[in-house]
Design brief:
CATH superfamily: Amino acid/polyamine transporter I
Order of helices and strands: HHHHHHHHHHHHHHEHHHHHE
Radius of gyration: 22 Å
CATH class: Mainly Alpha
Largest sheet: 2 strands, antiparallel
CATH architecture: Up-down Bundle
CATH topology: Amino acid/polyamine transporter I
Strand order of the largest sheet: 1-2
Distance between the termini: 17 Å
Strand content: under 5%
């Protein structure tokens, strides 16, 4: 027994600073450099777009408080997956992991890679939009590079993360300072009548929120690695508050800066906002913004890869994914099978997708499962009040966030039904069809066992339980 407990213990190595930069570093990705124009064009007026950004931040802070309580009650890594598994049962949890591994995670990776690519090629195509094929090839190259980095060495991929975190906070600081200088000089004309032409439909508000929340995606990253956090009951809520308030503040100031320098029309027609901003404020040094935005997206992509491997890993540990995905490289100790799998699926999603539609369907699926997770928290609060809770939120919080999540899932469908949403919903529920024969009745093991053995030898991996 002693041997076994030693084998399975994960080291708690993540302190408060590491936790904050894991959340912040994945949140500040490509979104803040890409989504402002979509939020503005969907909602219609500068004032309303700032309101949307602020509300997104508020919603994410409330949601992450609820997650902090979940993380201190259910102290396992794996985020939504493990919470749904413990509150709603294995079928719903499998639906989540099925759509997450085959669609949500890869779509996130593809979306970030596309915006990285747009920024890399933007300086070479100043007057016209860059060719789509070129953008997708650059995006694919970025995905493959990061897959290789993450397969080779965990420590290297974490130092990449820290380096890029510093780079993007500096980039955002440059944008904010530039904006403040312009405001002091008296460039306030874009803020007069700032609520004219606001679109107050259900659909525009929903879609604007999708695009805004895409920039906040990553707020729940810490919940994927709870088992490695020092004193989670103290550090989880703290890290969440620090990181998310910091990011919300930065985002609002950056948007004010964009709107100070550019008219709403210029902002909406720009394919890469930060580059347009750079060209107007920094003149011949405008290309710096392009580099900064690309670095930022690259760092966020790295973070997404890093935590994405965890979810696969936990699901395989619970028997919901093929065993091969819960294995790690013998010498390098990285979860290479899970990473290779994510890479392949991301490249497939990249082929047909464009940035806007990837974001909308990504957000739709993600918030669908956030809603289920939050109802799980309500269930725990009402039915199991006796569980030890070092950190608790008032019951009104999960209720408010749940209402917002339901609105975000239903709004675009009711107001402007698109056949794609039906496909996505069917895809989520098709997880059940796979669950019954393969997971519940464990059919077709012999073929899979042969394949697992072959892949184990080919990739030099072994079941990863030890975390020495």
């Amino acid at each position: 027994m002693d041997e076994k407990t030693q084998k399975l213990s994960l080291k708690r190595e993540l302190g408060l600073v590491g936790a904050v930069s894991l959340i912040g570093g994945t949140m500040i990705g490509s979104g803040i450099f890409m989504s402002p124009q979509t939020v503005l064009s969907t909602i219609g007026s500068p004032g309303a777009s700032l309101v949307v950004w602020a509300c997104c931040g508020l919603l994410v802070i409330m949601a992450s408080f609820c997650y902090a309580e979940l993380g201190t009650v259910i102290r396992e890594s794996g985020g939504e997956y493990i919470y749904i598994l413990r509150t709603s049962g294995p079928v719903v949890a499998f639906m989540l992991i099925f759509s997450s591994v085959l669609f949500v995670r890869p779509a996130g990776v593809a979306g970030i890679a596309l915006s990285f690519a747009q920024y890399v090629v933007a300086p070479f195509y100043i007057d016209c939009p860059p060719p789509v094929l070129l953008v997708k090839c650059v995006a694919a190259a970025a995905i493959i590079t990061l897959a290789v980095v993450n397969c080779l060495n965990v420590r290297f991929s974490m130092s990449v993360q820290v380096f890029f975190m510093v780079a993007k906070v500096l980039a955002l600081a440059v944008i904010i300072i530039g904006g403040v200088v312009m405001l002091i000089k008296g460039h306030t004309e874009n803020f007069e009548d700032s609520f004219d032409n606001t679109n107050l439909g259900i659909n525009p508000i929903g879609i604007a929120f999708y695009q805004g929340l895409w920039s906040y995606d990553g707020w729940n990253n810490l919940n994927y690695v709870t088992e490695e956090l020092k004193r989670p009951e103290v550090n989880l809520p703290r890290a969440v508050v620090i990181a998310i308030s910091l990011v919300t503040g930065l985002y609002l100031l950056v948007n004010v800066s964009y709107l100070t320098v550019m008219t709403p029309k210029e902002l909406m027609s720009s394919s890469a906002v930060a580059v347009t901003w750079g060209n107007k404020v920094l003149g011949s040094w405008g290309w710096i913004m392009s580099v900064a935005a690309a670095l930022s997206a690259f760092g966020s992509l790295n973070g997404t890869f890093f935590s994405g491997g965890r979810v696969c890993f936990v699901a395989a540990r619970e028997g919901h994914m093929p065993d091969i995905l819960s294995m790690a490289h013998v010498r390098r100790l990285t979860p290479s099978p899970a990473l290779i799998f994510t890479t392949i699926v991301s490249l497939v999603v990249l082929i047909p997708g464009d940035f806007q539609s990837i974001v909308n369907f990504f957000s739709f699926t993600a918030w669908f499962f956030y809603a289920i997770t939050l109802s799980g928290l309500l269930y725990l609060k009402i039915k199991k009040p006796e569980l030890p809770r070092p950190y608790r939120v008032p019951i009104i919080l999960p209720i408010l966030v749940l209402i917002a999540a339901i609105f975000l899932v239903l709004a675009p469908i009711i107001d402007n039904p698109q056949i794609e949403y039906l496909y996505v919903t069917l895809f989520i529920f098709s997880g059940i069809i796979i669950y019954i024969p393969f997971i519940h009745y464990k059919l077709c093991p012999s073929l899979l066992t042969k394949l697992t053995v072959f892949l184990q030898l080919f990739l030099e991996v072994a079941p990863a339980e030890k975390n020495l």
